[in-house]
Each structure stands twice: as C-alpha cells, then as structure tokens.
Amino acid sequence: MSEDSLYLNVTMPDGFEGEKLPVMVWFHGGGFAILTGNIKAFNNTSLPKEGVVVVTVNHRLGPLGYMAHPALTAESPNETSGNYGQLDLVAALEWVRDNIEAFGGDPDNVTIFGESGGGGKVLSLINSPMASGLFHKAIVQSGMAGPDDQLMPVENLLAAEEQDGIAVAEALGVQNAEDVAAALRAIPWPQLVAAANGSGRVFSPNVDGVYMLNGIRDSFEAGQHNDVPTIAGANEGDTPGLIDGLKWYMPWMADNNEADTFVYVFDHLPDNWSSQGALAYHGAELVYVFDYPGSFLSHYLLGLTGLQDPVGGDTPTPQGFAMNHPGWNPNDVAVTDNMRAMWANFARSGDPSTNGFEWPAYTSENDTYIRIAQSLTVETGLEEAFPELD
Fold this sequence. Notes:
The protein contains 14 helices and 9 strands. By secondary structure, it is of the alpha/beta class. Strand 4, helix 4 and strand 5 form a beta-alpha-beta unit. Helix 5 crosses helix 7.
C-alpha cells in the first residue's frame, strides 16, 4: 500500500526438472490504481501444472505510479514524469530475464498477460521501446478500451498528465511551494492518494517521448511497436467501453502486426448464474484461466456479477452468496481445462490451438474469432459478436 511495493511471486511446476519452461508474467487489473498480484487465485497451482512458470507482479499504482508534474519532469534527466508504474513492470521483466532460469524458466520465451487495467499495462508495454526484447508474446484480457476512454487512453500526452498533477498539488496546498517536488514528497502517501482520488483525476501511462513515443495506433502503423504474437478478447457481458475497444483495435492492430493475432469472446458462467440471465461479466474469465472457483465470492462481493442479493439490500453479502451460489460442475471444469491449455500452449509456441481444437488467427479480412463457452467454436463477424446491452 505504499511505494515500497516492488515484489513478485514465482510459481514453478513439479516434474519438469532440466527443462526450460515458458514463462507467463501476470499483471493484475484495477485500472492502474488498485488491487494486487498477491491473491491466491493468481498464484494458484493449476496453470503452472500446464508446464509453465507463472510470475505475478506488484508495482506502484495510482498517483504513486503514474502522476506527472512539471516539477518532477524538470528534475528528470529524460525530462519526463509519470509512467513510474510501467517502469516498475519493465524492471520486473528485466528481473525475469536475469533470474527466471534459476526457477526452470526460459528467459527467451516470456509471455506477458493481464486483465482489465492489467490488459492496459500489457498494451502499454507492447507500445514501449523500453520493453523491447523483454517479452515474446502478449495476452490482453478485457483490456482494450476505446480511444475516448480515459481509464486507458490510446494517446495521453505528458503535458496533459502534468496538469492533473498540478491539480493534486493545488489540492494539497503545495503548488506554490519553493520546491514543489520536495513538498509533494514530504506529504504522507495516504494523504497524497486521498487528494488524488478526491481530485477526480485518473492516472495512467502517458506519451513522454522516452517510455512511450506515440499513441499506440500511431506506433503500430509506423512499425514502432513490439511485434509479438497476441491474444485479445472480451467477455460477453463486459463493460461497453471494453467491448467497443476490442472492435476498434482489432482490424488495424492485426493489419499492422506481422506476428499472429488471436481473438476470443468469453461466454460462460456456471449454470445457476447463467440461468438467472447473468452474462459473463467483467473479470469472469479469470476464474477459468487460473482455475480458482473461490474467486466467485470476491466477484459477488464486488458487485461484478450483475446479480441481486436475494436477502435484499444494495450490497451483496456472504450470506446472499451462500443462497445464490454459482455452482461448479463438469461444464465449468471443461471450460477451465480448455482455457488453461490454450493459454499455456500460446506461451509455449505462439499458437493457442490444442490437440482437439484449431484456433485460427484473426485478420481484418477473415474477421474470425473463437467463442469460449461450454464448447469452443470458430465464428466470424466481431462487430456482431456481443449482445446489445441496455
């Protein structure tokens, strides 16, 4: 909960001694502002049992990770500020490059993956020359926001971020200090975070000319991005901005990426919840990627599921969860088996196909994606892949 947050976890599988295993580095969600890589779900043993080494990363978040300010820019040798959280992720990938072989991992076969804000972090690293050569594949789960979404802007210039930093300094009463940077550093971090939250500003990666040279579409079209095999997708009942973002990204992203791009729509929930009309909500696929059904409780408490608490009230309760349990049956086991196999195969080879299912690459011409449900199907027409939601 402070700037002392640069920790990571490594989970390695048994039974693969002497092999160099693919490495999967996970960036958690939370809109660049909250949450952690330390929860049990992300560090479960099921995905490593597919023959991969899983690394989960923590880093600076919110204003501690992304706030820019002219005073911070002026003292920087590169004349930049903000992006500290992303530089932490670069440092984590450098650690993986230098150390993961001791854990059975192959430093030359690293896949970065993340969901929501974690997917935005993956996109940002795809767009950063500082991350060149540090990863070799990427998975973006529900992390492609549209061009006007301020949570994950496509192009966010340093000068604009500096104005947000000025607003926070003004709220703290230090903008007119003789040394604004020193005055900001003297403020206890909870007070800084509270002021940033109260300002209504949303901090995220910026185009500073060093960490990031251009907006991501400009980088792709100029061939400046990190060209690696990529999986991208969204959930059937995801937030509209992320669904629209996936549709917006895909044609030009695939057209300007020499490596294959694979697209999915995740369309599954346990029987009890789907029978009540719930769709695969934002974050639902995490339960299946990491094979950790216990995540459903936290999703329910966070209000992600869209289900009402049957005992009444605005906030779901554990008692309500017990009365409205999602269930977990062989259908769910089959979905998690498929997802873990596809994600691990992609990490191994850049091709997520399995022995029983061929996942074709997406192009703007074929407009082909897969639907992940109780069975896997190949479909076309990404524009019509999601329901019209109120």
